[in-house]
Amino acid sequence: xxxxxxxxxxxxxxxxxxxxxxxxxxxxxxxxxxxxxxxxxxxxxxxxxxxxxxxxxxxxxxxxxxxxxxxxxxxxxxxxxxxxxxxxxxxxxxxxxxxxxxxxxxxxxxxxxxxxxxxxxxxxxxxxxxxxxxxxxxxxxxxxxxxxxxxxxxxxxxxxxxxxxxxxxxxxxxxxxxxxxxxxxxxxxxxxxxxxxxxxxxxxxxxxxxxxxxxxxxxxxxxxxxxxxxxxxxxxxxxxxxxxxxxxxxxxxxxxxxxxxxxxxxxxxxxxxxxxxxxxxxxxxxxxxxxxxxxxxxxxxxxxxxxxxxxxxxxxxxxxxxxxxxxxxxxxxxxxxxxxxxxxxxxxxxxxxxxxxxxxxxxxxxxxxxxxxxxxxxxxxxxxxxxxxxxxxxxxxxxxxxxxxxxxxxxxxxxxxxxxxxxxxxxxxxxxxxxxxxxxxxxxxxxxxxx
Length: 451
Ligand SMILES: [Zn+2]
Description:
451 residues; 14 helices
């Protein structure tokens, strides 16, 4: 007998949308279509049935010198309540070792409610570190991350080239923060020289040119090393043009982040502008249009949250120069409902595309497909029953992040997750978080195979 049947919802699969039942046996989907009697039934009439979202870009793990406000437990409470059932967190190379960063991430994630995996941030691309890559990939850690914006990237360019080559050989995808260090450093120094250290100058310190230059350089590096790269949080029309161009020459994926879909640089005229500081900065309305178009037409592959909130007090601390404000915001719980509300409901994104950018494409890039990211027989029963007509006003007080503000405070949203299941278990139901800390499991990432 089937353990659970989800009846009568509009199911979004790769073949399209259709009215169907879903059968779940144990942790997996055992049937889609007409489903016989089950021990438990969930009525999904009038609801959308979507695969759980996969967020390829979070910062939930600690480092030796930093403990995030949203650790794995708090961050994944927000994730589950928002329909994100798998998170990929950055972990950092530690004491020279990539493996040690992963081990720390594994310990931190023992409290995770969501399933999880990692990208290992490489801050020192030594021969020893590069030598760890094949073993890490064999153990399911087929992802690295590089910050081009760090001075280290400039000093060690050749070694980072060798790192990308090693990643290509082992089948690890390399996530890249593409902002040009020299441009950002020069602009920042100049602003400081003129005493322009207020947050309103933050956008000038990290101009579009810095992003465009780094994207072009990253593409070049991918083309020469055969590496597969994943450009995180692209924010501007010109960077997206460079991504389009890059896709013709190398294996390049592109991500954007909710901030760049909903807000513009006008936010930086507010007295509390620091609350929206993230890297890169918010851009112009024309850039917002370009991000939406690229998401719709496929130039951008995913939306990742870059979830790393800081408290109001930390963001607004008096006297902080623009380059000392801790970057990052909360986004895990609002990722899906806002993209549905602002994208699908407003006709900017199809439902199929919503599922593609939030679930299927990130699962593929992470080497988790078809276990994750799709409603199909045999896939993990990570399922969101989404009420397209629910009305919510976003209030930090109602959300599950440990953060005391939300970047979209006061936004009216149409559509919200009603039931969220992870591996066949109801984790969230009508406002109640049911999953317990430690429910999440490590998801092994398969190496990428060149096509
Ligand atoms: Zn990030």
